[in-house]
Amino acid sequence: MNRSNRLFLFVVSVFVCLALIALSILGLTTPLQGVLAVPLQLVQGAVDGVVKGATGVVGGLVEMRDQEAYVADMERALAAFQEEIVELREVEHDYDRIAALLDYTRSRQNEEYLVADVIGRDISAFTRVIYLNRGARDGLTAGMPVVTEKGLLGRITQVSATASQVLLITDPVSAVNARLLNSRAEGSVLGQTGGGLRMEYIDLNASLQEGDTAVTSGLGGNFPEGIIIGQVTSIRQFEFELYQTAEVRSLNDFERLETVLVITNFQPVDLSVFEQAQ
Amino acid sequence: MSGYLSIPVLMVVVIVQATVMPELEIAGGIPDLVLLVVLAWTLMAGYERGLVWAFVGGILQDLISAVPLGTTSLALVIVTSLAALALGQISPRNLVYPALAALGATLVAHLVSLAVLFVAGRPLPLIATLLSVTLPGMAYNAVVMIPVYRLLGAFYVARRPRRVEGFAR
Questions:
Q1: pLDDT tens string for chain B (169 positions)?
Q2: Residue A40 in contact with partner chain B when CB distance is under 8 A
Q3: Alpha-carbon gap: B4 to the closest alpha carbon of chain A (Å)
Q4: Domains parsed from chain B with CATH numbers
């Protein structure tokens, strides 16, 4: 096809298009368009439904993947938050414990205290001993009483430069001179093999009551007077025995000791000179 | 391919254009599949066949759009004429010229459509329309033209293998 024919085709095409546009603008092609568009619009509607459905499925899959990523992110964030919560609870626990110890020290202002952390306990089943992270460098010496806000724990028996060993009052060899607050009866609180406490050598005439509080009596010079040891839970009295016996329960949980107070201005009285003289 | 076959083929293309292409919108640009197919066919099969495709494709597209009937046909007729005049016939294996042609064709087609809409009493802001619709459309069409030309070229070669030797480029 030569150039003039092409030009002719182009001019005709443009003319037809312009004519169609003019007719369309005037609204004269509307009925024809309505008829011709019907099959196209029907097919378009059907295909559009399929495409929209497919798009929805694809979009749903993408959204599901996004949701999975979101859930994974949330799980990671949750794990981080849980870790943080555990740390905060630990801090709160430490705060509560130290605040309680502080309250206790304020109630006994004539005594000086050093806070120490429990760093270990004796692995033997026969002894009740704990180890503290404070030692001779911190001014600790053997014989110093160890307490918590809930009462007496024991006394230091050995000291190294940086640590000290505490014999708990629940140890079978431990004996603490005690007094019952209500009955004023005196005796000796001894540690038991099972980890309990028993107050022995109580006068037969003393009127004992369950719930009475046992405190250190100060006799013997090993402990300051008035430190709570525990509460009487049961009393045993036999006619053939010379003394009454009371089971005492400490408020301290000796298995879960974390922070303790060492009374540093108490010097135990050394009575060994008098024992040797006898 | 005869001119009659262009009607069902372009109907499919128009339907795809109306249903699938809007889902592929990127930055305001939508591939103009009718334009690309007509342009590709013009570059491969020659001006006369392309002109038929341009007219039929434009009419079919206008039937399901809001522009005056003949608007797209006019735009495609002008585009195919300019493309044939500037490039002639191009080998189905050549992908650079068709992509460049798609860039220019998109701009020309949009300008023609905007002019018709202006005459029809529906003027659109020229600069804003060119920036937000035409520019991304040009880039999109240039990219999509490559697979379209490749597919249509394979189809064309399969139908008219002897015509391949006569290509100018």
A1: 556 777 888 888 888 887 788 778 787 778 899 999 999 999 988 888 889 999 999 988 888 777 888 899 999 999 999 998 888 887 777 888 889 999 999 999 999 988 988 888 877 788 888 888 888 889 999 999 999 998 888 888 777 655 545 555 5
A2: yes
A3: 16
A4: 6-157 (1.10.1760)
Q: Is the ipTM of this complex over 0.85?
A: no
Which of B64, B69, B78 lies nearest to residue A20, judging by beta carbons?
B69
Inter-residue contact B5 to B115 (CB < 8 Å) = no
Partners of residue A21 in chain B, C-beta under 8 Å? 68-71, 74, 116, 119-120
Task: Test A21 with B18 for CB contact under 8 angstroms.
Answer: no
Contact B19 A1 (CB under 8 A): no
Q: Is A173 exposed, middle or buried (0-12, 13-18, 19+ CB in 10 A)?
A: exposed
Chain-chain contact of A40 with B64 (C-beta, under 8 angstroms): yes
**How far B152 CA sits from the closest chain A CA (Å)?**
22
